[in-house]
Design a protein that fits this description.
Order of helices and strands: HHHHHHHHHHH
Number of domains: 3
Structural class: mainly alpha
Largest sheet: none
Pfam families: DUF3435
InterPro entries: DUF3435 (IPR021842)
Strand content: under 5%
Shape: flat
Helix content: 55-70%
Number of helices: 11
Radius of gyration: 30 Å
Oligomer: single chain
Length: about 230
């Protein structure tokens, strides 16, 4: 072929690409380029190496873009904004009413009534705490899994147009925003994708300064804080 020092076959292209990759990352990832024929070829690191190279940047001699690789190999893909870290109060209360826990609690009360030894009572109390914590953790994992699934289902239904739940969507933060309106305003501005106007920036700075100067040992309702001269 005119103008080519070598025949531009797929084999030559793959060999040239393999040399580039080997120069940047060593010999292990080259198996992806040459074909992974044997299960004994780099079995330990094959998957990690083959999925963690930016071949385009290597060939062009540019700085590698690894953010997408870090995303798929890391835990960021499993991170969910506002994932609940504890069960709702109603579910916590319902757990205490489970038959097995009620039976254990009644057994402890019976031991106390019979004036059993403190060793026996402490043992039963410890077993009760273990059972309670185990059930709470199990229920929390189920609750979180259901929460994540419902959220992902909603993303599919809304075709990815659903807004992420930011600070103002958190129930605790909504309650705090009723007591401290500045916090609600700050959360709303932080979660907005629209650029802030000059006046909004000034208002944001004012609210932020108010929050920094507040003493949270005592929190007053809006317009009920005592004045300096009172």
């Amino acid at each position: 072929m005119a103008g080519y020092s070598k025949n531009a076959t797929i084999h030559n292209v793959r060999r040239a690409l393999g040399q580039k990759i080997e120069g940047w990352h060593g010999s292990a990832p080259v198996s992806q380029i040459y074909a992974h024929r044997s299960a004994g070829t780099y079995p330990e690191h094959y998957q990690a190496h083959c999925s963690s190279i930016d071949t385009v940047s290597d060939v062009l001699g540019e700085e590698e873009e690894m953010y997408h690789i870090e995303y798929f190999q890391g835990y960021e893909q499993f991170w969910e904004v506002s994932l609940p870290r504890e069960l709702p109060a109603g579910q916590k209360e319902a757990i205490l009413g489970r038959p097995e826990l009620v039976a254990m609690q009644e057994h402890i009360e019976q031991l106390l009534a019979d004036k059993a030894s403190s060793v026996d009572v402490d043992f039963e109390r410890q077993e009760y705490r273990k059972a309670l914590i185990s059930i709470q953790l199990s229920e929390l994992h189920c609750y979180q899994a259901q929460w994540v699934q419902e959220r992902r289902d909603w993303r599919i239904v809304s075709r990815g147009k659903v807004n992420l739940e930011y600070l103002e969507s958190n129930p605790c933060s909504r309650a705090l925003a009723l007591i401290m309106p500045e916090l609600g305003c700050i959360a709303e501005m932080l979660s907005s994708a629209e650029p802030l106007s000059f006046d909004e920036k000034l208002l944001f700075a004012k609210h932020l300064l108010t929050q920094c100067h507040c003493d949270y040992d005592v929190t007053f309702l809006p317009n009920e804080a005592p004045t300096d001269d009172g």
